[in-house]
């Protein structure tokens, strides 16, 4: 064996050794991530699981989040297509609850004149919950809906056949069929931004910092601090989908 062959074999040996060592010491480090088109992007040496926190008492119903989301993600301009939207809950004397969301809250909310006394009124931003046990992934017959290694649920439009199974399976009403591409769409946590170290655009534009984005597994994550300091609820916990959108100060009337 000449010196060149020896160097190549030695390089291959240490390369394989490094691969095994990293995979043992840092599980998931070499798995990679996929973007919303299904392409692999940067790896990390620590597994992360992205999530979002929403502080209800801080939301003022301005609709900037829904408006910015539409512009950032090229969501159809029609008033019934949204990746994120805001609902207003009005609790009347006697316990009746009225819920409205004109144009997804993009243009804000006008005062309502009710015959009965309003006991309480508040706003609830909603979006895909990026569940740890997503029913939408289970029902997709072609694997177009998938979960990334960092816990984000995405749709590969190249594979989606527009069957609507995922739309029907989503218990949060967070999906829609794009009127032009005829493929399923939903919130992606602005995956094209977070892989670059940015936060989702809805978080960036919120004037009251009602939305918090971060790693659910990171000790120093702003999301983990938010969850420690508040009484947290998720939507429809009885479904065991394990949502990763966490609400603080959420009333029981919210469904």
Please give a structural write-up.
The chain has 255 residues and is α+β, with helices and mostly antiparallel strands. It contains 7 helices and 13 strands. The strands form 5 sheets. Strands 11-3-13-12 form a 4-stranded mixed sheet, with helices on one face. The protein has a 3-stranded antiparallel sheet with strand order 5-4-6, covered by helices on one side. It has a two-stranded antiparallel ribbon with strand order 1-2. It starts with a helix and ends in a 7-residue tail after the last strand.
Please give the count of helices: 7
- Rg on CA atoms, Å: 22 Å
Overall average residue pLDDT: 86
What fraction of the residues are assigned to beta strands by DSSP? 15-25%
Low-confidence stretches: 1-45
Helix content: 10-25%
Derived structural class = alpha+beta
